[in-house]
Amino acid sequence: MEKVGILGGTFNPPHLGHLIIANEVMCSQGLDEVWFMPNQEPPHKEKSNAVSNSDRIEMLKLAVEGHPKFKLELIELERPGPSFTYDTMKLLKENYPQKQFYFIIGADMVEFLPKWHNIDKLLEMIAFIGVKRPSYNLQTSYPILYSEVPEMGISSSMIRKRLKEGRTVRYLVPDSIREYIKENRLYES
Predict the structure, then answer these.
(1) How many angstroms separate the CA atoms of 183 and 171, rounded?
(2) What's the CATH superfamily of 2-151?
(3) Which of 17, 116, 144, 175 has the most CB atoms at less than 10 Å from its CB?
(4) pLDDT in tens, 57-98
(5) Dmax of the chain from CA atoms?
(6) Which of 142, 126, 116 shows the shortest CA–CA distance to 90?
(7) pTM, 2 dp
């Protein structure tokens, strides 16, 4: 059975931290692919309309191009309303019954697991893989796998802030994304 990691998020914008996490987890857990899944409305975050969904998709395409095992999964953008992982994974398992799914989450989401919608049913369908993030704890009573990844303090919100202030984001995002942001005047004040 093919093993697929799902890396969900707003990817607003996608950055090198996302790519490093995906690659490290794929290698350490023996995954066949990692699917980057931008969400519509994460239930745990306030809605941020900094850029359009089409811009986020284009930036993700640039982020994963050149890596044969990184794919885009747009299922959460194709349906309206909050993006509950349980509902999404139920659909993905119906659409791809031959695949075994692993949901990759940062330590910030590991701490949040008790509040996830239908968490007990979700744990029957998929396995979680947790990765460290600065200032968060990976401890939980839920059965999750762990992958060691280099810890970086890179976040999309930090990148948006830097861009709004006119500061550089070189080496924080791939050059192709940096050029896309510049050409399309995204995140400017």
Answers:
(1) 18
(2) HUPs (3.40.50.620)
(3) 17
(4) 999 999 999 999 999 999 999 888 787 889 999 999 999 999
(5) 48
(6) 126
(7) 0.90
